[in-house]
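Suppose a colleague, Dr. K., hands you the sequence of a protein chain of 483 amino acids and asks what its three-dimensional shape might be. Before reaching for any lab equipment, you can write down a predicted structure in token form. Begin with the sequence itself:
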Amino acid sequence: MTLTLLGLGPGEVDDLSRRAWRTLKQAQTVILRTSRHNCVPCLPQTGATYQTCDDLYERIPDFAGVYAAIVERVLAAARAGDVVYAVPGDPLVGESTVQALLQQARAEGIPVQIISGISFVEPTLAALGIDALAGLQIFDGIEIAARHHPPINPDYPALLGQVYSRDVAANVKLTLMNQYPDEFGVVLIHGAGTDAPVVEKLALYEIDRSPHIQHLTALYVPALGQMSSYEQFQEIIAHLRAPEGCPWDKEQTHLSLRRYLLEEAHEVLEALDAEDPAALAGELGDLLLQVVLHTQIAIDDGEFRMTDVLSQINRKLIFRHPHVFGDAQARDAGEVVANWERLKQQEHAEKGIQRDGLLDGIPKGLPSLFTAYRYQEKAAKVGFDWPKIDDVLAKVREELAEVTAAQTDAHRAEEIGDLLFVLVNLARWLKVEPETALREANAKFCRRFRFIEDGLAARGRTPAQSNLEEMDALWNAAKGAGL
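The predicted structure, expressed as tokens, is then:
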């Protein structure tokens, strides 16, 4: 018993290899994955029994079930004797059944030989006039259609096979739009390798509207360019740190970069507060620079690589979202947060991370208002909290009274701290994040005071040359102007 996996080429019988033709002439049993292939009517008829699996496509509603049934049919024939399983293109390009057959035949000790064929790739390259070695990436369109973000390096072109229906094309389009502009120019290639291929240039958003889509349709996505890939980013940083790179970058350490990480994070917050998407894109790049630069330093020092960074966060996100990637249920955001904390504690236990207290996991370098917020949030989860907001308001009044009653500078400083702390708790009860609220209040004060300065400058004066009454009138004007 022998299983022969044979490629029929991309379409026309002229592209069938002499070895494949000879094998088909000598075969007794040939199973075709599908008869929907241009060369099938021209195959040698010298005694071989041809069977197709088209009936499985008609009876079974999903591809996984179809492929499993095909594999079992071919294996049953191989267990009984020699069989040739013929597929479009090349057996090792885009053929899920072939991979399953190789694995199962190996497990059962069934000898396998592979007869290669021209895949859809070669005639597609000819139709496009491009070189595959110029960075071409090849993907299964069905896999891309099932994703939310494409696994494609946008600095290089990509070829997607098996875009065989408008439904697949629509889902491919939505996935690609997570990385490419809607108007980005792409190419659909229909029937590559047949006598009448169609090459169709159109915008990405239009691909599922093509009237030519059929079982031999592929999609070519040119390079986006514009230095737009994560890999290019890592190359630049690695170059800066290389012996021939930048003296400043080569001198940096994890510790020397601490201040820049904090500065860049605050600049991102400023762009968010300004609701400026263009500025946000730039500032996020500066913040990402810190991540990649720290990682390159770690690579140079033999500590870890970017693959370690990404692997850890990917695994963490999947583990802590079992309601998305598993069978768990989460009815609302509150349950998501509760599950997150429970799974986080489980991770710490598995890693042997010991927390002496509930508040130990809060980073010590957070801004003070946010630290207070997180402390109170943690304590409230175990029941250490006032039962109602009226109690919080009463505590605010109590702390304010203690501030006014304080007799010394040290006592007043302590009481002001207590007042701020309880005001943070009030903000938490009102579902207001105090750090953001105060940052926005600071920005508002800055805008209005700048309005005062500009108004006085128009009168030929500065704030030092004005008075409270005049400045207060300008302040109210700023409020009236919506600043």
